[in-house]
Amino acid sequence: MVAVVTKRYQILQYVSWMEPVGRRSLADQMHVSERIMRTDIDFLRQQGLLDSSKSGVVLTARGRDVFTSMDQFMNEMLGVQDSEKQLAERLGIDHVLIVPGDADQSARVLDDMGTALAQTMQVMLPLGEQIIAVMGGTTLARAASRMNFQLSAGRELTFVPARGGVGETVAIQANSVAAAMAQSTGGTYRVLYIPENVSEETYQPLLNEPSVKEVLALIDKSSVVIHSVGEALAMAERRRMSDDILQLLRDHHAVAEAFGTFFDAAGNVVYKIPKIGLRIKDLDQIPYVFAIAGGQSKAQAIQAYMQHAPKQTWLITDAGAAQSILMG
């Protein structure tokens, strides 16, 4: 997939240098057949990034904006590609993007990871209807502010919370993140109001509520998932979990949390919060899965969770976490 992103960026780059340019000239420049180039140009034209005439292929106004916004990002991405390949291989997933810096040292790095997420989605997501299931958390709340209306051009975006409500600050709950992403992109959103830390006997009747059933049906149809990976004890404390659960997590040396599941460093499941919505095993059937987490302090958590992540996962992280994992 990284190769696909790179190729599409390079097509935009060559067109910006040579426009109007013929399809055969582009194919020669990129050392591919004219048939393959036609397929790529057709895709970019459907995205509204290129236009064709008798004179040749040119960038549209939107294509110029997208190319400009991608330029610095792609230069950085191509510069660290070796590290990304090494990290992807180490974690057993197909895709890794690394942004410079360490989120532990500067919150600005969270914004850069959010920008990388938005740009990757812009290039990779098909046109048409896309249901995007999102988790909560500070990282995703920051990522929401980096999205823009370009993502919804040619796409009908619906954002839904991936799981029921959690005991966090309202601004970073999944419902709030879904709403913020919808506002940033011009999409729509749905909310799922399910209380945290209730018994199965309590939440089972909620499954029959029409509003809950509607959102759960959308979650089941989601084609995109965006989530983060948290440090186990920090997540448990932020969710105000009981002292007994906190002690259990300490006793079992939990280091990571994702989708309400806590893991030790070896990837063993330590504890699960009974919740409604997506589970980790559901991710195998979802085409586009984006995990965004950074900072050296999250390196161990990322490694623990990635033992359960589906292979098609895109991990968007920073140099602080990446170097810690690769040198560990």
Structural features, described:
The chain contains 14 helices and 13 strands. The mean pLDDT is 88. The protein has helices spanning 2-18, 23-30, 34-46, 61-79, 81-91, 108-124, 138-144, 174-185, 200-203, 210-220, 232-238, 243-251, 299-306, 319-327; strands at residues 50-53, 56-59, 95-99, 128-134, 155-161, 188-189, 224-227, 230-231, 254-258, 261-264, 269-272, 288-292, 313-318. The protein is of the alpha/beta class and 328 residues long. The chain has a seven-stranded parallel β-sheet with strand order 3-13-12-7-4-5-6, with helices on both faces. The chain has two domains: 2-66, Winged helix-like DNA-binding domain superfamily/Winged helix DNA-binding domain (Arc Repressor Mutant, subunit A), CATH 1.10.10; 81-327, 3-Layer(aba) Sandwich (Rossmann fold), CATH 3.40.50. GO terms for molecular function: carbohydrate binding; DNA binding. It holds the Pfam family CggR_N. Residues 79-326 form the Sugar-binding domain.
How are the SSEs ordered, and which strands pair?
Layout: H1 2-18, H2 23-30, H3 34-46, E1 50-53, E2 56-59, H4 61-79, H5 81-91, E3 95-99, H6 108-124, E4 128-134, H7 138-144, E5 155-161, H8 174-185, E6 188-189, H9 200-203, H10 210-220, E7 224-227, E8 230-231, H11 232-238, H12 243-251, E9 254-258, E10 261-264, E11 269-272, E12 288-292, H13 299-306, E13 313-318, H14 319-327
Pfam families: CggR_N, Sugar-bind
Family: Belongs to the SorC transcriptional regulatory family.
GO molecular function, one term: carbohydrate binding
